[in-house]
Amino acid sequence: MNNIVLLPVLIPFIMGVILILFRNSPSIQRFISAVTAFAMLAVSIYLTYIIYQNGITTVELGNWPAPFGIVLVGDLFAGLMLILASIVGVACLFFAFQTIHSEREKFYFYPFYFFLLTGVNGAFLTGDLFNLFVFFEVMLIASYVLIVIGGTKYQLRESFKYVVINIFASMFFIIGIAYLYSVTGTLNLAQLGERVGELEQTGVLNVVAILFLIVFGMKGALFPLYFWLPKSYYGPPAAIAALFGGLLTKVGIYAIIRSFTLIFTHNPDFTHNIILALAGFTMFFGVLGAVSQFDFKRILSYHIISQVGYMVMGLGLYTPLAIAGAIYYIAHHIIVKAALFLFAGATQKITGTTDLKKMSGLLKTHPALAWLFFIAAISLAGIPPLSGFFSKFALILSGIQEERYFIVFVSLLVGLLTLFSMMKIFVYVFWGKPSLSEEEVKKTKLAPLLWPVAPLVALSIIMGLAAEPIFSFSMEVAEQLLDPSLYINSVLKE
Amino acid sequence: MEILMIITVGVLVSVATYMILTKSLLRVVLGIMLLSHGAHLLLLTLSGLGEGAPPLLGEQAEAYSDPLPQALILTAIVISFGVTAFLLVLAYRTYKEHKTDDLDELRGSADE
């Protein structure tokens, strides 16, 4: 019983409510939200430290014992995700201070920013399937508002599709919950994990597992359910797009990893092979989309899809090394992807466009931006000694150990194409003759735009250079995930 | 009774699917509403429509009905109520800005 597990959910929620009161005073809003974001970061680091020291920490809400009441469970995986979410939260918030339009600021941008983080953190911590649905909805409703805030024609059109697709997926979530409840008679994740192993109902459980894979795959942009992502992430301003690109799809991936290591472990030959096949298709078609595009933001959006494939590949291989690789990859991806979207925002602020063909020569006028982008880009493509290399290395190594050569081949090919399309951005945006006159260059101050991004790039370098400790941490997370009895015992206290 | 409810759910979901696949914004919203009704009814039905007593202390009954699904759909109904309200406003604003409710015309071009 440790109430600190509640704080990552409560802090953004309460502060979000308070922020509504200060609608007309942006400076107060900014001050409060900056303090809140740092408080969340501090709390999640402290919480992860406690989990690391004492093992899995749980809170039973209202003191109802575990299978009957709702529990919040902090394990190492959840702790790691909380830290990553708050890092991205801080960076995007400070970028938003510089770039967000004052009209958007007035229409409750900051409150919904924190409601979104409430939902995300809640989804990481909850130990109850229906509660997971509720936190998903909290997150999604906030994301509906953030994606349409500003109300341009493009945003309205694409948001409508985004909302409809997500509601559709949520309804399937409810249907999945209904089936699972009728088969097992419980919705507590730990008890589900226990009962699914005891029930000899492989057929029904396979169907339910695939239903949940569809639901989470739609939120996490898996093949063939990713079609909504590139268009809807193109609309909102960079700070919001970065938060979405870094964080939102990864909540879906978190839910897939959680449910397929804790609950649906009854028939890995069937489910995990499907996941592996989906991973291959997802990364291949995602990267093909990226190669074909000529727009900064669109290329990055397609890369989200292809990289989600790597994370799911780790789950599909289902060995400790592969899952550790997937976790390392999630950490790397959340940080680098948010940074890249913020770079797209910064170049958009400087040049006024995201179309690659309309800009050139920023290397001469903005060298700091160019080189920071270069580091993030090659980290995404997986060049040593940056973070992208080591996570892919672990995944590919375990693929070879498991003798799944085809998926290894696909992932290497995708890595190459990723490098190609990132270099395409670099060549078009930064090489060539400067397209801007000197007055235009002086108009935008670059330093305030780069300050929120630089720490993310630095983190990517640190994660690459300090791969040893971070990888051994990922191994511990993976071993905890692959031994569901730890989770089950700490929740049900048997 | 369960069979009847399942058939109802099936009808609701198939009508909803048809509505979502049409080209008018408002019909899509209506389809989403019907789909959520179907999902909620399914959640209520699949735990069994028992005829036990209300699950209260002191009822001295042989069997009690399961209160959990009812608590769950109450939550789910409230959520889908809020989301539907938002979706309606969004559809209306989209219609106002684009001067059309035909989803074919709302496809958007590749380069914009």
The topology string of helices and strands of chain B comes to: HHH
Arithmetic mean pLDDT of chain B: 88
Q: What is the terminal separation of chain A in angstroms?
A: 15 Å
How many domains of chain A, as an integer? Answer: 1
Question: Oligomerization state of this entry?
Answer: heterodimer
Proportion of residues in helical segments of chain B: 55-70%
Number of helices in the DSSP assignment of chain B = 3
Morphology of chain A: globular
User: Main beta sheet of chain A, described?
Assistant: 2 strands, antiparallel
Biggest protein-protein interface?
A-B, 32 and 35 residues
In terms of DSSP E residues, the strand content of chain B is: under 5%
Number of helices of chain A: 23
Total number of β-strand segments of chain B? Answer: 0
Share of helix among residues of chain A?
A: over 70%
Q: Mind summarizing the main beta sheet of chain B?
A: none
Low-confidence stretches of chain A: none
Q: What's the total number of strands of chain A?
A: 2
**Strand portion of chain A, in percent?**
under 5%
What is the average of the pLDDT values of chain A? 90
